[in-house]
Amino acid sequence: MIEYVFLGIGTAGTAAVAYAVAPAGSGLHRYVVPRKQLRAEVARAEGTVEELTCKLVALAAELDAVTAQRTDLKAALEKAGQRIASLEEQVRDRHQLRDRVTALEARLANATAVRPLPVKPSPPAAAVPVPLNEAPFALSPAALPS
């Protein structure tokens, strides 16, 4: 069995040497590709190059458009951020004004509240009733200023 392995290796080695050193007209390594076939491959390759160049140009234009759009969106985002900051400041001011208005309304309500007047204690009743014309609040025609 081992003999067959060595025989196969020897045959392969001999074939490789014969391939490498064969004379110019009969060696397989000297095989020349016809010019017609080479020209066809070059034409196919040039077509592929042109197609890929067109795709590359289209992608570059699309990239420019997307870059411009991204720049516009960044500017819009910055404007939106500034607008949000402005609106948050307005909301804070509104809350401060609302608190101030509430405080002023409370002060106004306290200032204009209708409360019962305090009852003054009446002076102790005199042992002798005072005649009406001598009463402290009695008005008589003689007591009116002229």
Task: List its traits.
single chain; 146 residues; mainly alpha; 2 helices; 0% strand; rod-shaped
Number of helices: 2
Would you report the number of β strands? 0
Provide the residue-averaged pLDDT: 80
* Strand residue content: under 5%
Counting helices, strands and paired strands, the structural category is: mainly alpha
Given as residue ranges, the uncertain stretches (5+ residues, pLDDT < 50) are none
**Overall body shape:** rod-shaped
> Roughly how many Å apart are the termini?
160 Å
Oligomer: single chain
**What share of residues is helical?**
55-70%
- Gyration radius over CA: 58 Å
**H-E string:** HH
Summarize the main sheet: none
Notes on the structure:
This protein has two helices and no strands. The chain has helices at 2-21, 35-111.
Topology, please?
Layout: H1 2-21, H2 35-111
Précis, in short:
The chain has 146 residues and is mostly helical. It is built from two helices and no strands. Helices cover 66% and strands 0% of the residues.
